[in-house]
Amino acid sequence: MAVMFILLVGLFFVCLGWGSADITLKEIFVSLLNPGDVHLGRIVVSIRLPRITAAILLGGALSVSGFLLQIFFGNPIAGPYVLGISSGAKLIVALVMVFMLSQGRYISALGMVAAAFIGSLIAMGIVMLLSNKVKNMSLLVVCGVMIGYLCSAITEFIIAFADDTNIVNLHNWSLGSFSGISWEDVAISAIIVLVTLIFSFVLSKPIGAYQLGESYARNMGVNIKHLRILLILLSSILSATVTAFAGPISFVGIAVPHIMRTILKTSKPIVMIPGCFFGGAIITLLCDGIARSAFSPREISISAVTAIGLSPIVIYLLIKRKEVSHG
Q1: CA angle, corner 164, sides to 159 and 165, nearest 5?
Q2: pLDDT of residue 325
Q3: What are 218-261's pLDDT values in tens digits?
Q4: Transmembrane region positions (predicted)?
Q5: Positive or negative, the Cα torsion across 2, 81, 226, 208?
Q6: Does 141 have pLDDT greater than 50?
């Protein structure tokens, strides 16, 4: 944990100076102490700092959301992006945004989170209905992917018929991007994410019992029905907050928990929840830095970077799981 914290702090300062305009460490501290500086203050304090803070908060949130979903479904390849939950949130947010913009009004940050949460719950509800019909978890994941593609396709139709002046912003957001994040967005996302993480951490003991089987958890006095509802709500709130402010980000929620299990050599929630947060924050921050700087001044979507970097891990998981089931 200490190593990950130090790595995160180091990467934080690297990303502050890394970009289309390279800024030295000395200039970073000068701009932080004197944010009124017209050039450096605007770049560091008004543009890069809120974006980097959001990447840390939302990347960690997405990873913890994936961990909670993997516990809920008892499957290491479950995640908000793979199961179509992020895409469901994206669809409802796009619908609300286009409707509000057509009326000449802008949706508030809390309104976006609420819309994304509703979309997450709808997608989660569909996946859970399918889980009652489909007992094979690999087939359930395929169904989740199909739900995701369907929601994404509908979202693209919605964006195609949006007002011309808003198409670019909607399109960038729909692909996943931290561009344009404001301090207001950071404040709201920080409150939602930190409160949800505290609730998740408090539930570490019953979640740990649930991991060992429903019968064991019941014998330990855990209310299985209530715990499952809480897992759904907590994971949906976290993934909805990420989607509302940054759009759908692929593979972080599924790959990072597996990486953390390998590094920490445990699946205990009391260790994995903070571990997943740090791991998700580090990987998301690194990927966002690459997305905005690798082809500067052109910026690519963060999902493109996370897909290239993390999809091999997901493929490995699928292959390993198949080998175990055949073995």
Answers
A1: 110
A2: 47
A3: 888 888 888 888 888 898 889 888 888 888 888 888 889 988 98
A4: 52-74, 81-101, 107-130, 137-162, 186-208, 229-257, 269-288, 300-319
A5: negative
A6: yes
Give CA angle at 157 (156, 161), nearest 5°: 115
Residue 138: how many CA atoms within 13 Å on its side-chain side? 9
Give the domain 2-326 fold: ABC transporter involved in vitamin B12 uptake, BtuC (1.10.3470)
Confidence of residue 53 (pLDDT cuts 50, 70, 90): very high
State how far the Cα of 52 lies from the Cα of 68, in Å rounded to an integer: 24
The sign of the CA dihedral 168, 122, 243, 282 is negative
> How far is 254 from 252, CA to CA, in rounded Å?
6
Buried-state track 95-133, b at ≥16 Cβ within 10 A, e below 16: ebbbebbeeeeebebeebbbbbbbbbbbbbebbeebbee
Q: Is the dihedral of CA 318, 242, 67, 151 positive or negative?
A: negative
